[in-house]
């Protein structure tokens, strides 16, 4: 069984997205939404893995660019966040990411980010651990105070040189003079068509290579060092929460089911059911800003220091 799971895990390392299924797949009456039962499980858990997705960023007002109503100009992120789009139209892709960088730098952590960070800090004092495994590319978990964060899809606030591979934190606004006031999302805005030598460039000595956002584009493989850490967390966790993710982007979509397959309780917190809901022991429906904070609040049996 372990080998089988490992094989499935290995097959899914390339980031891809499956079709969004409209509407609820399963009768909601079948779900276990018993919060007091979940809280009993939570009170005994020693290693908690919390997988978060775009729904958590959305609580802070960060758009996902994954729905018809969330296009940037006339594109979804699947159209622009690809290696092909970046090599064909680096100026347009940089405008898109410049817009997203400026946007996330203006946002604050939500009640969800805060509840997760507070839970990690509190449980650490009790000798228990919380790890956040996030698909979000903003920095809001860290801003809220989460220490143990694995960012499987990279970071909007980091760059990577396409020539020398150097990765650097970059919170400059704008990231380069040519992108100042560019990136407006309205559908009638035309491309700025910035010459490639005016786009963000590497500052390592003698390199000057083109920089790209240090995010995982669709069709690219995930960082193997991060995935090794994720795999270890999946093996040791005794409770897993899947929060604000539609479970359609792989390989993250199979982390929860993989944990559930070893008999570990998994709880899903999402606006609606997902293609993976049936694998999970608990499903709490609604905005995660409403459902998650009470789930992670201090339990009466906890010793609070
Ligand atoms: Zn370089």
From TrEMBL:
UniProt keyword list: Cytoplasm, Metal-binding, Mitochondrion, NAD, Nucleus, Transferase, Transit peptide, Zinc
UniProt keyword annotation of NAD present: yes
Subcellular location: Cytoplasm, Cytosol; Mitochondrion; Nucleus
Cofactor details (free text): Binds 1 zinc ion per subunit.
InterPro entries referenced in this protein's UniProt entry, alphabetically: DHS-like_NAD/FAD-binding_dom, NAD-dep_sirtuin_deacylases, Sirtuin, Sirtuin_cat_small_dom_sf, Sirtuin_class_III, Ssirtuin_cat_dom
Molecular functions per Gene Ontology: histone deacetylase activity, NAD-dependent; NAD+ binding; protein-glutaryllysine deglutarylase activity; protein-malonyllysine demalonylase activity; protein-succinyllysine desuccinylase activity; zinc ion binding
Protein name: NAD-dependent protein deacylase sirtuin-5, mitochondrial
Organism annotation: Mastacembelus armatus
